[in-house]
Amino acid sequence: MAEENNEIQPGEFRMVAKTMPGLEAELARELVKIGARNVEEHRRAVSFVGDKGTMYKANYLLRTALRVLMPVEQFEASNEQELYDGIRRIDWEQWMGPDDTLAVDATANSEFFDHTFYLAQKTKDAIVDQFRDKHGRRPSVEKFSPTLRINIHVNEASVTVSLDSSGDSLHKRGYREDTGRAPLNEVLAAGMIALSGWNKRSRFIDPMCGSGTLLIEAALLATNVPAGWFRESFGFQRWRDYEPELWEKITEGAISRINNETVEILGSDVSYNVLRKARENIKLAKVDDIVKTACQDFFDSEPPSQGAGLVMLNPPYGERMAQDDVAALYKQIGDTLKKKYSGYQAWMITSNPDGLKAVGLRPSRKIALWNGPLECRFVRYDLYEGTKKIHKLR
Question: Where are the alpha helices (DSSP H) in 213-322?
Fold first, then answer.
């Protein structure tokens, strides 16, 4: 195999795709698949090199990315004046005019800056002051659909300024209107399915489906529907150098690869009201022809008698439950998997370590993930014929 050329070619630039902890390797694989070069994993992010087409593809196709950023400047700042001066030195007229709109997002891991709102405010001040001095008028702030969304990241005294090509977070696919009390983030759901190694052909079951996110993401993956297919817009479409013809070529090419593969995707929930919401989301995602749902209790239900497949669960984590109730719930999950799902591979995510112990099955794999602010374990159980319970997990 020829060595990759690490030099940035004409028309190429560096980018950073943000993701959730634990999904970096899956995101890197996705980036390689769409033709990105110099792909490197970082904490909650993957950097890469590509051209404008790569950036468009990244936003439209990546299932495990939250945002795609284009770094434009880096400088040192250890106080508010140095931050202001560094931002103001950038020629912002490359990307916007005084009649355009902007929004600023900021993150920080720094002893010098501990308030991200303040960081965003100083950045905004420096940009609008530059335009006011030059033109006598200034861009206004627009939180939802700005001409330019700017990302500021401070690591100690190092400030990285990036343009956010995504606009809204890419987890906002555009197919989900109604959710349950604790909906699963779409990027996390897609990452869980990728981590499971599901082959897109075997049966996929979510017996505690909630708002249906796992079911929908599995169906979109199986039929090769682009992650961004339902989105109304992306941030880069408001940029000055946006090329609609290139965008149309990329989206049409991706849409042409959608298939009509038949795959068995089954979901259920014990609550009819929750299931009704899931069915609405499944219909909005246009996968109601392949995702079948039923209102039933996981513990009373029976999987199809023929064949096996993969079962994935996102049970209650127990934040509002007594400890004894948590142990009983997770023990019942383990008993049901053991008795009824022989031959299946089961995956479960939870933030409750005591609940995991109560399952009583030995996990063959444990992966650390985060569901919002909750640190979780995503675990695999291989349910062979005659799977034995154990009484103690290391």
Answer: 213-222, 244-256, 272-284
**Residues 6 or more apart in contact with residue 7 via CB below 8 angstroms:** none
Integer Cα distance of 60 and 231 in angstroms: 9
296 and 359 both lie in a single domain: yes
Task: Tell me the per-residue pLDDT of 114-131, one tens digit each, with 9 for 90 and over.
Answer: 899 999 999 999 999 999
**Domain of residue 76, CATH code:** 3.30.2130.30
Task: Return d(Cα 46, Cα 44) in angstroms, integer.
Answer: 7
Cα separations (Å) of 177 from 95, 160, 193, 220, 282?
Answer: 33, 34, 22, 17, 10
Structure tokens at 284: 């909005």
Of 200, 196, 202, 205, nearest in space to 363 by CA: 196
Same domain flag for 197 and 136: no
DSSP code for 92: G
Return the amino acid letter for 215.
Answer: L
Q: How many CB atoms lie within 10 A of CB 300?
A: 8
Domain extent at residue 150:
13-164
Kindly report, residue by residue over 307-345, the tens digit of the pLDDT: 889 999 999 987 666 677 889 999 999 999 999 999 999
Instruction: Name the helix (H) or strand (E) containing 30.
Output: helix 24-33
Q: Are residues 198 and 328 in the same domain?
A: yes
